Amino acid sequence: MAGKFTRLVWNCHALSAVCCLGFAGRNSLPDFAQLPTTYLLASFAGCALLIAFLGTKMSAYADIIADRTRFGEALIGSILLGAGTSIAGIVTSTSTAAVGAADLAISNALGGIAAQTMFLAIADVAYRKVNLEHAAASAVNLGQATVLMILIALPIMAWSAPSFTVWAINPLTPVLVGAYLVGLYNAHKIHMEPMWFARDTDATLSEEDHDTSDQRTLWRIGTLFAVSTLIVGLSGWIVGATGVELSERLGISQGVVGALGTAIVTSLPELVTTIAAVKRGALQLAVGGIIGGNMFDALFIASSDIAYRDGSIYHAISQRTVFWMALVLVMTAVLLIGLLRRERQGPAGIGWESVLLIGLWAGGAILQISLG
């Protein structure tokens, strides 16, 4: 059983890599410039709906896999669900970087992380019993959130350092990938040999408190998950292509389109899967899916640097994009504090960290829009 799950995880990550290399290897995106604006908008919206629909299915599949393999909801959410739901975003960032849209590629990654972190606050609103971060206590999620902050700090260091590349790739890019892999290993060790334990309360919901009744085989569920991931990835490529063209036609900066347009659309699977997981009672899967997805989203930066052929992508982005990096760091720190403090009830029935996350994201969005 564990061997089947391991193969499924690596197949999911391999699928992401194949999609990214396939799209990045193209010299250019299809000629969307010849299509009318209404068609582009319809394609953008249609792909958004498809991504949202499949996101619901992927949450159910991941919950079943977590129950069957006994690897834990937090770990499954972080590795499998996080990577699977993020494939649309990584294809969008990689394909747009391949055509030289550096700001759109990186702001899509950072805007997606910011939006997905804010989605946890929305899930907190949906879970009315108690603060979500209180009920979904998990040492794995604490470790993953810490690794995420490292993954976001590294690109800021690269941006502030002198530009240097090897084959047009910044040396920090492989370091970023290595840090992600170490983070996954760290999550596995925390799950298998935990040294910290959250205090159980009457509001804590463990993984054993709910179970799935689906009788389909693990192989079939894994296949459905992989097929959904592939379709979501293709939809993400179309979102990226139409996003670049709409940015030019509507006179909106790539940073705004990336952080508030393509980022939100390609992050819809995370929103849908998080809400669906909360409704199913899979709270650790919900939180783990967001944090793990955010970790995987940090790899968008690495894949974008590889696809960007004009040098280091870290030195081709604007200060507006670096602002989103700093905002993501602050939002992740707020989330980490919330996971540690585990407040039972805050204003309007949600935790204070959720209020702050919504406020931080909204403030960042308003600032970016006001700058044009």
From TrEMBL:
Topological relation to the membrane, as annotated: Multi-pass membrane protein
Main location: membrane
Domain of life: Bacteria
Listed transmembrane segments: 38-55, 75-99, 105-127, 139-158, 164-185, 218-239, 251-269, 281-302, 322-340, 352-371
GO molecular function: calcium channel activity; calcium, potassium:sodium antiporter activity
Subcellular location: Membrane
Designated name of the protein: Cation:H+ antiporter
